[in-house]
Amino acid sequence: MMNTLDGDSNVLVVGASGGIGAALVEQLLADSPARRVWAASRTPQGPRLTALREAYGERCVPVPVDILDESSIARLAETLRGDSPRLHLLINAFGLLHDEARGIWPEKRLEDINAEAMLANYRVNALAPALIGRYCLGLLNHADRAVFASLSARVGSITDNRLGGWYGYRTSKAAQNMFTRDMAIECRRRARRVICLALHPGTTDTGLSEPFQKRVPEGKLFRTEFAAGKLLERIDAASLEDSGGFFAWDGAPIPW
């Protein structure tokens, strides 16, 4: 149960058709009294979200968004504003690590860097959360507690980088972390009840991690339900003092 949400709370999960995103939507509907859970994705009519809509009725609202299209993000914010002027929780639950069809793969050395692949990482991992923050801050800025959380990755930590490589993913996640920190500083001036968090879900059994799972130590590959539950626990426990922080699934701070 999320103690920080009540029957008047509104939640938005962007990337709701992904493994962690869908699990977040399911748990928010099942384990919180939230009035509305908006499930935004490029494919809102997929079977999993459709089943949740049928099970939870108007509490679950699948809604379309293309995170690579600024006008689509703006329309999403307007759609939410038409239903309620307040959001209490916004989670960016998407990311790009590889796309073989487009020739995007984690780089092992400098010679592997490709400009278009790097830009694709930045568009998804860094620019999309920034644009969502730009258009949705007004919905989060009200008298109640609100949280803006983005799924980051431990490999985006500059201090913790001991292996190198993965240039596009690492640097785009580091840029996302800087945006989260920057937004938190601005919110202290103009949206003082908003908590901004960068969250590492751990290595989770999704399509993003699938090609690399053989290297994961036993017991360190998490089910999406487990990761989603731990992320919601971290969000529920967060205070204004945590805003701008980077935290792992277990609540441990991650160095920048």
From TrEMBL:
Pfam families: adh_short
SUPFAM superfamilies: NAD(P)-binding Rossmann-fold domains
GO-annotated molecular function: oxidoreductase activity
Gene3D superfamilies: NAD(P)-binding Rossmann-like Domain (3.40.50.720)
Gene Ontology CC entries for this record: cytoplasm
Name the UniProt record assigns to this protein: Short-chain dehydrogenase
Provenance organism: Spiribacter curvatus
